[in-house]
From TrEMBL:
<protein>
    <recommendedName>
        <fullName>Glutaminase GtaA</fullName>
    </recommendedName>
</protein>
<keyword id="KW-0732">Signal</keyword>
<dbReference type="Pfam" id="PF16335">
    <property type="entry name" value="GtaA_6_Hairpin"/>
</dbReference>
<dbReference type="InterPro" id="IPR032514">
    <property type="entry name" value="GtaA_central"/>
</dbReference>
<dbReference type="Pfam" id="PF17168">
    <property type="entry name" value="DUF5127"/>
</dbReference>
<feature type="domain" description="Glutaminase A central">
    <location>
        <begin position="349"/>
        <end position="694"/>
    </location>
</feature>
<dbReference type="InterPro" id="IPR033433">
    <property type="entry name" value="GtaA_N"/>
</dbReference>
<feature type="domain" description="Glutaminase A N-terminal">
    <location>
        <begin position="110"/>
        <end position="342"/>
    </location>
</feature>
<feature type="signal peptide">
    <location>
        <begin position="1"/>
        <end position="19"/>
    </location>
</feature>
<dbReference type="InterPro" id="IPR052743">
    <property type="entry name" value="Glutaminase_GtaA"/>
</dbReference>
Length: 699
């Protein structure tokens, strides 16, 4: 019944339903609401594409349900009652009071803020804050998000106002027939009221429809005098508020399936008489899982705890800390937002702020801090493409955001890969592709039958390890992992100049021999190893690998450049003179300051790109209509200034105009801006590559 109602709503023309909102700095394909980890990952769809449960409604908070990144609804509703009349400010509850008028939307790196006008008499300022703490392990380890609803009178009068918000049990499992259980409580020192909701049968390490199947969800607010709560059938709970402005303080104990009379967990706050003084109500929503990852490390398969368990004795202490930390969190978030916006504006202008600030929560939102303060790890899920954990060629496109915000985070991503392979649990000479087929199981590939991308992953590991060591001045890390880095280098020396029929990271393009850009990555990997050898006192290796890399790069220029083309450019593969691909791997040469590739190659590519722009950017290669978000930005960050500006402008325009309707896709049709046929990536951490220019310019 709910579903039919939603279809009816989305079938109507939205311009008739909504007064127009402004969108700043852009109207993203989907708006991040609570985006903190692979499982706390909730969005409001905006773009008009009709796939994936869409179309999105254009970027309005009210009138449409929020969704998990994978597309299924996550019930989260908001109502407000002003002088006895109810309105909907979030979600699409039925019964469905008229929606408030959204007048503006704005996003920063950590916040999505909606301003609502309620009948010209009350203004609401609704802020979703998913804080990012790149250098504060304790705070970053908490997988909660804030919702701050600020209400004030806007017509000079005073108004009687009650505020309501709820979530449903849809958060606790991807299986809508799973039985949910819940409880209501007050934290020990009486400061916070919370609904705790969980899957009755906990399935450790399991996912269903990409959602996690264990742990406890918390939906909390300040335990103020005029707070009421209720759990129960969605329609009853919301109707109670609409009728009386308060809830029954009742606890439904009929634990049942998520979709059976949708169990709903409401809070209502009577704000009393509201004048022009802003009144704030804060909610916290998030997940606690004591056990986070199954990791096959140096001592075999172990359960790795969530890092927050080292700082807090109980889930309620973690929740209490997070919730009561809001004033501090808001200040730190403003500092972080300003830093990104300031740096991005200086490096690439306003359009670059549009791109980087939208990518930040998405990139961090695929990761989770685990382990202990002495041995922390950052685990990453390859969201949407196949759910692998610690995928090397996903960490690589994402890694600029970690280098920029805190290089140690890159180390924490690489550590589990080194540990598993150095303990002899991976049989191949080349680097593994990922640490396990399905997050959260980092159980390795003892049979060595992971998706083979040998040159790609060896090059990525060498480049990222040196990039981290340079930024963090940590040469001990290079010594510690020298043997394995050298093993991968031998593979590259044997295979990189004339690459076999291999996949590269863009595996949907299929295998191809003699890929020009893949060869370049391998050669840069060898040159990176020469630096690593130099920094660790391995003099003979340093000079040997350095001369091998120089020799290869000379040959590569003959093999991979279509000199007679107009204008000249590198090819997709050797000898295929009427082809091209974006030469994004050139980034490594600049990033590591290797000086391996002559400036003439940079200039040549920069001139060439400027001639092949389509509406929303440059296609990935000459056989494709699709453009790659990250690889364009890698190329942009090492191009001449005017070409850089062309890329940044095209991508910011795409963000604002794209009909794609989920969290940023990293692959889109360069002409229509929609998903390419058959490939609908979303919410992938690779968008951290947006920070490629910042990783080069920051110190
Ligand atoms: C929204 O704006 C429209 C057009 O101005 C107006 O008719 C309607 O009453 C407003 N609704 C609310 C809830 O403010
Ligand atoms: C809304 O709240 C946010 C965060 O609290 C604040 O930065 C912003 O200025 C407010 N906007 C308006 C229009 O009041
Ligand atoms: C809710 O019901 C459960 C089950 O009867 C009970 O354990 C719990 O104490 C109740 N909570 C409240 C706040 O009434
Ligand atoms: C409850 O605990 C939080 C976190 O320790 C603290 O900030 C708050 O002041 C406490 N409240 C009371 C009433 O003790
Ligand atoms: C992880 O492994 C466990 C067995 O240890 C399995 O039950 C679970 O389904 C796996 N998780 C995923 C997401 O595949
Ligand atoms: C609680 O509600 C009453 C009745 O609406 C109101 O008079 C009072 O101001 C409210 N108290 C607070 C703290 O908002
Ligand atoms: C790859 O390039 C080398 C050097 O030009 C050439 O000898 C070889 O035949 C090519 N391999 C394929 C499969 O085209
Ligand atoms: C490292 O490179 C520097 C500068 O080229 C050189 O002087 C030094 O001898 C090298 N060290 C090693 C161990 O190769
Ligand atoms: C340079 O390295 C290659 C590959 O490991 C090796 O075969 C060769 O013997 C080395 N040359 C010297 C002079 O060490
Ligand atoms: C490609 O162009 C190069 C010069 O840039 C030329 O040497 C080579 O013969 C060309 N290859 C083909 C297959 O036309």
């Amino acid at each position: 019944m709910l579903l039919q109602y939603i279809l009816l709503v989305s079938a109507t023309t939205f311009s008739h339903c909504y007064a127009a909102s402004t969108f700043s700095p852009a109207r993203p394909p989907a708006i991040p609401l609570a985006v903190k980890s692979p499982y706390v990952n909730c969005w409001q769809q905006a773009g008009s594409d009709s796939d994936n449960g869409g179309p999105g409604n254009g970027g309005y908070l009210a009138g449409q349900w929020p969704t998990f990144w994978a597309g299924q609804i996550l019930g989260w509703a908001g109502l407000i009652r002003v002088d006895g009349t109810s309105y909907t400010w979030m979600g699409a509850p039925a019964p469905f009071p008229t929606v408030v008028n959204q007048t503006s939307f704005e996003y920063t790196s950590t916040r999505s803020t909606f301003i609502m006008d309620v009948d010209g008499v009350v203004e609401m300022n609704i802020t979703f804050l998913s804080p990012l703490y790149p250098t504060d392990m304790m705070r970053q380890s908490l997988l909660f998000s804030y919702l701050d609803v600020v209400v004030s009178s806007s017509d000079g009068g005073t108004h009687d106002v009650q505020l309501y918000a709820d979530i449903t049990a849809e958060w606790v499992s991807g299986d809508r027939s799973a039985i949910a259980e819940w409880d209501y409580g007050i934290t020990p020192n009486d400061s916070i009221a919370y609904h705790q909701i969980y899957r009755q049968t906990q399935l450790l390490w399991s996912e269903n429809d990409q959602q996690t199947e264990y742990g406890n969800w918390y939906w909390a607010t300040d335990n103020v005098p005029n707070l009421t709560f209720e759990s129960g059938f969605a329609d009853d709970v919301r109707e109670a508020f609409i009728t009386s402005g308060a809830l029954g303080n009742t606890n439904d104990t009929d634990y049942r399936a998520i979709s059976d009379d949708y169990p709903t967990f409401g809070f209502a706050v009577d704000l009393g008489s509201v004048d022009s003084t802003a009144v704030s109500t804060l909610f916290t929503l998030g997940l606690t899982q004591e056990q986070a990852i199954q990791f096959d490390g140096a001592n075999g398969d172990v359960s790795v705890p969530s890092l927050w368990t080292s700082y807090f004795a109980t889930e309620l202490e973690a929740l209490t800390f997070f919730h009561t930390d809001y004033a501090n969190a808001a200040g730190l978030a403003t500092t972080f937002d300003s830093q990104v916006a300031g740096d991005a504006n200086a490096a690439g202008g306003a359009d670059y702020v549009t791109i980087t600030s939208l990518a930040a929560r998405q990139a961090f939102g695929a990761t989770q801090l685990c382990g202990t303060p002495d041995t922390p790890y950052l685990f990453l899920k390859e969201i949407s493409s196949d759910g692998n954990i610690q995928t090397v060629d996903v960490i690589f496109p994402a890694h600029p955001i970690f280098l920029y915000t805190n290089p140690t985070l890159l180390k924490l991503l690489l550590d589990p890969l080194f540990i598993n392979q150095e303990s002899g649990q991976y049989p191949n000479q080349y680097s593994m592709h990922d640490l396990g087929s399905s997050y959260p199981n980092a159980t390795g590939h003892a049979a060595g039958n992971d998706e083979a991308q040998p040159i790609e992953e060896c090059g990525n590991m060498l480049i990222m390890t040196l990039a981290y060591a340079q930024k963090a001045s940590n040469t001990a890390y290079l010594s510690q992992n020298y043997a394995l880095l050298d093993q991968w280098t031998q593979y590259l020396i044997e295979n990189a100049l004339i690459p076999g029929d291999q996949l590269d990271t863009d595996d949907f393009t299929g295998p191809l021999a003699n890929r020009t850009d893949l060869a370049l990555k391998g050669i840069i990997g060898i040159a990176a190893m020469a630096q690593i050898a130099n920094l660790t006192g391995n003099t003979d290796d340093a000079s040997n690998y350095s001369s091998i890399a120089d020799n290869y790069i000379t040959q590569w220029q003959t093999l991979g450049i279509a000199m007679d083309a107009d204008p000249p450019h590198t090819t997709l593969a050797y000898g295929m003179n009427d082809t091209y691909s974006i030469l994004y791997n050139l980034y490594g040469d600049r990033e590591l300051n290797l000086g391996l590739v002559p400036q003439t190659v940079y200039d040549m590519q920069s001139n060439f790109y400027a001639t092949i722009f389509e509406e929303y950017g440059v296609p990935l290669d000459s056989s494709a209509d699709y453009a790659d978000f990250n690889w364009q930005l890698f190329a942009a960050s090492i191009a001449a200034e005017d070409t850089t500006a062309m890329f940044i402008s095209a991508i910011a325009t795409w963000i604002n105009e794209s009909p794609t309707n989920r969290a940023l896709t990293d692959l889109y049709d360069a002409t229509s801006g929609d998903y390419p046929s058959g490939i609908e990536f979303t919410a992938r951490p690779v968008v951290g590559g947006a920070f490629s220019l910042l990783a080069l310019t920051s110190t």
